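Our consortium's second objective concerns turning raw sequence data into structural hypotheses that experimental partners can test. To show how far this objective has progressed, the report includes one record in full. It was chosen at random from the queue rather than selected for favorable results. The single chain below, 262 residues long, was entered without modification.
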Amino acid sequence: AGSKLREVFDKINNLLSGKPVQTEGQAVSVTQHPQGLEFVCYKLAEKFVKHGEGEVSFHHDSAFPIAVVLSGIWELHPRVGDIFLAHLHKKCPYSVPFYPARKEGTSMEEYQRMLGYEVRDSKVEEQDHFLKRMSGMIRLYAAIIQLRWPYGNKQGAHPHGLSYGWRWLAQMLNLEPLADVTAMLLLDFLEVCGNALMKQYGIQFWKTMFFIQKSYIPRIEAVTSSGQMGCLSRLKNFMQKCLQAEEIPLPKGILTPSFWRT
């Protein structure tokens, strides 16, 4: 509910502003320790990324309430946003976007970590689980860049707005595609913020969509084996529907004005 989200936002904002906040029966304040504020910014940013790779990866709609709170906090406390990006880029290099190359002397285990895989006791997580986590983080990022906290000061610019999404898309299309990963990330990103990018960039956006369909999808196909076609097929269907309709649908779960009256 909108009212619940406001409570969460106010509690985080009060904590970061140095006000005492009640939690588990006691009052805590970042002023209780010289590095209290820095610690809270770090842990809060880390927590938002964990929401992306956990909750959002299983419940796509949850990207929007989480993103709108972070967007508002970022606006008032830019340090949280900077640290959030650092955590996000480390956990999901594709959010830069960047495909790390394996350097000489780097062990396979270390390289897999650089690519975003979880490695525990020399065991690498399964591909499905890895893709799900990356998907959740990209969806959260795509939600953040288009949302503003509705009760904030609308005078300033969004601290990390749609221009960053436009840049992400352009840089993504300049990279050589990876099997599985590239098709999934493009689909996730366009499903979540394609509608907002369409409204903002108009004809330039549609030129990019045609480029993806005509030139980039064949390049993804060239590196995709027959057993990895799932993500690519979904991306092709999505592109075809959007280009035929000349419209990108609003994402499922977007917060409407009526949500804030709940």
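The partners drew two points from this record. The longest strand covers residues 21-23. The chain has a mean pLDDT of 92. Both points have been shared with the crystallography group to help prioritize constructs.
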